[in-house]
Design a protein that fits this description.
Helices cover about 25% and strands about 25% of the residues. By secondary structure, the chain is of the alpha/beta class.
């Protein structure tokens, strides 16, 4: 092998990782808006065309700090949402101060309000603190709780369950007063809950948790998935990594989330704001 070829290979080994890490950091810091339409026969006429904005896994910390969060809130409000749903993991283990987080989240604006559940990271840090902060910010707590949203004579149900790893899941608190003909949206931070969810009343489930794999092989496969990290829980592998899933009559959307946790990079797992327009089928 010639000296020039050796030098070229050496430079490639040095430059290529730098380019990959530079791109991965750029991707992590550029939140996309993903516009979608969800059609269903149970959506009542008054909610046809209403916009639901779903955001998960903010992971407020030094990498996704006050400036980034303020921009996120402004972009969400700029979508003119009718409902804002928050899917948990608002903080990470290296979050230093939660006051700025709640101050920003308090500025979220939606016609029918903002609803939230906690994620595993929120439980690992301080679930009571997080719920109190969200509630004081004017955000409805949907962990094992539910709410009717009404428009004229029509209504839809917004419910949630506790985190699949760190809480209990009382689905009955959402479905105990609805009929199968009612339209129901369920929040579950962890999409693996889909494996045990058995309900004819839930139409749409929204989850996060996975970060779409965060570091993937060009968006096709992720070497590390949360479901494989804790052997005591259901093992689903890549099944609920990202996107639309279906189980019987229940549709599930798994968002890639917004933040990146302790590692400030994403690779073909763009962070997103999911804007879902409801459409009566």
């Amino acid at each position: 092998m010639s000296k020039k070829i050796k030098i070229f290979i050496l430079l490639l080994l040095i430059i290529l990782p730098c380019l990959i890490m530079g791109y991965a950091h750029y991707e992590a810091m550029n939140v996309q808006i993903k516009e979608m339409v969800f059609s269903h026969k149970d959506i009542p006429p008054a909610f046809d065309g209403k916009k639901v904005v779903f955001v998960s896994d903010i992971h407020f910390n030094r990498y996704f700090a006050e400036k980034e969060l303020a921009s996120l809130v402004n972009r969400i409000n700029g979508l003119n949402p009718d409902v804002i749903l928050l899917g948990g993991d608002y903080i990470s283990s290296d979050t230093l101060d939660v006051a700025p987080l709640f101050a920003s989240l308090a500025k979220l604006q939606a016609k029918y309000g903002v609803y939230s559940v906690l994620g595993n990271h929120d439980h690992w840090e301080d679930a009571s603190l997080m719920q109190a902060g969200l509630e004081n910010s004017g955000i409805h707590i949907a962990d094992n709780n539910s709410f009717w949203i009404k428009e004229g004579a029509d209504s839809i149900k917004i419910g949630g369950v506790g985190d699949f790893w760190e809480d209990e899941q009382l689905i009955e608190n959402t479905i105990n007063d609805i009929k199968t003909s009612d339209f129901c949206i369920l929040l579950s931070h962890n999409p693996d809950y889909m494996e045990v969810l058995d309900s004819e009343e839930v139409d749409l489930m929204l989850s996060g948790h996975t970060h779409a794999g965060q570091g993937t092989f060009f968006g096709l496969w992720a070497p590390i998935m949360p479901s494989s990290m804790h052997q005591e829980y259901i093992q689903t592998g890549q099944k609920y990594r990202y996107g639309w899933k279906q189980k019987g009559e229940i549709s599930l959307y798994v968002s890639s989330g917004v933040g990146m946790g302790k590692i400030p990079f994403r690779f073909f797992a763009w962070p997103e704001i999911a804007a879902i327009t409801l459409k009566k089928k």
